[in-house]
Task: inverse folding
């Protein structure tokens, strides 16, 4: 007997959210609309995922992220690591093919040590 497994889009959003905030140098997720910190109010406002059924009958995704990065850390290193982390998390957890991860750095934040 064969069945099917359906993965809700919110699951992919949650995986992207966790991988994003787990990446060194990322301090928050920014809203796609205002650039304000959306991490605590609605963390999914800075995440957009597009699903496409590929010719290979596998689900392909494109991910768009708006993030806030820690000031003083190389932005290129953070975004590169973020792309890898998100891609790995989605492919490992869902089996989807990640075609691309677009990262928009909306702001830099200075963290004051107490």
Result:
């Amino acid at each position: 007997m064969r069945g099917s497994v359906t993965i809700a889009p919110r699951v992919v959003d949650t995986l992207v959210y966790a991988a994003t905030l787990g990446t060194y140098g990322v301090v928050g997720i920014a809203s796609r609309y205002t650039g304000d910190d959306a991490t605590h109010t609605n963390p999914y406002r800075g995440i957009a995922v597009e699903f496409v059924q590929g010719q290979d009958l596998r689900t392909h995704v494109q991910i768009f992220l708006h993030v806030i990065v820690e000031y003083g850390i190389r932005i290129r290193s953070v975004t590169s690591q973020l792309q890898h982390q998100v891609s790995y998390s989605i492919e490992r957890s869902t089996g989807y093919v990640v075609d691309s991860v677009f990262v928009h750095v909306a702001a830099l934040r200075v963290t004051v040590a107490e």
Q: What stands out?
A: Residues 9-109 form a domain with the Alpha-Beta Plaits fold (CATH 3.30.70.1350). The chain has one domain: 9-109. The beta strands are 26-29, 47-53, 59-70, 97-109.
